[in-house]
Amino acid sequence: MPEIRVDPLTGLRTVVAAERADRPNAGLSATAGPPLDPAGDPFAEGHEAQTPPELYAVRPDGSAPDTPGWTVRVVPNLYPALAPEGDDPEPESHRDLFTSAPAIGAHEVIVNAPQSATALADLPVEQVEVAMEAWRERMRHHAASASCLHLIVNERREAGASLPHTHAQLYALDFVPAAIARERERFAAYAVRTMGGNLLADLLQEEVRRRERIVAIDDEAVAMAPYGSRLPYQLMIVPRRTRARFEEDGPLGARLLHDVLGRLARRLGANPPLNLWVRTAPSGADHFCWRIDVLPRLTHLAGLELGSGVHLNIVAPEQAAAELREA
Questions:
Q1: For residues 201 and 210, is the Cβ–Cβ distance under 8 A?
Q2: Is residue 22 part of a domain?
Q3: How far apart are CA 114 and CA 133, in angstroms?
Q4: Are 158 and 297 in contact (CB under 8 A)?
Q5: pLDDT tens per residue, range 6-44
Q6: pTM of the entire structure?
Q7: What is the CATH number of the domain that holds 239?
Q8: Which one from 141, 165, 167, 311 is the annotated catalytic residue?
Q9: How far apart, in Å, are the Cα atoms of 14 and each of 8, 215, 276, 316?
Q10: Number of structural domains in the chain
């Protein structure tokens, strides 16, 4: 029986209709993406001249900037969505109808590894740890001047990646997007309602008690299929101890992230196209907890999702979690 679920963190509604997975041609799997030719890879080690000058790099051997010898490298986005400064747009004749402002902020690319790999799952787990430490360092660098930090990883062209070499992008925004502000408000309202409770910490505790949507647990974090999963095999990684901001010192969840990405690849037959982001506390958040969201792109968004904002998920989170536990 299809049901409507409300995500506790976002308030968004999802229709979970597992029976629709039995439709013709509805089977979910992934096929390997095209191989990456190192010779044409601008992010590969030795091709430093093909990118803008680096902003930051992890260089264990102390090598010079913009030379080989790095393990993670950060450069400005060649086609940035944000600029460090800008002039106000020309005023519109109807300011009550049309509002605009300069897109101020920072937009960086974090190259996750020197080798030509297309997915985080294909890197050694130790390299994923180094890359995520660099994510944290760059977020920390912009924290004082940004209202919201949003770090993403897009894997495969189907998920929006313009270059196949595994990389993250960091947006340092001077505003808090509406979706993130809404989460901030839900955390705050829950804290008031429960006399100081943390929404995600309490949700995690209940999910661990129930066990039906838990995928894996390690010393740092818990991986689960969210109750209101919008897409098949959606995952969420949550620190075991509440921390508002990913950029603060503490657990990274790197080993667990690497683990569940490998489980996805084994269950689906290959690394799927996916989007991943780090949700960290925006400005004005007195109650929050960071998390990592992983959304495989196995189905297409259609008229229901795009027109109403209501997603249709054909794999129940409990089923997804059970399959990934076995993977």
A1: no
A2: no
A3: 15
A4: yes
A5: 999 999 999 999 876 555 445 799 999 898 999 999 999
A6: 0.94
A7: 3.30.428.10
A8: 167
A9: 11, 20, 19, 11
A10: 1
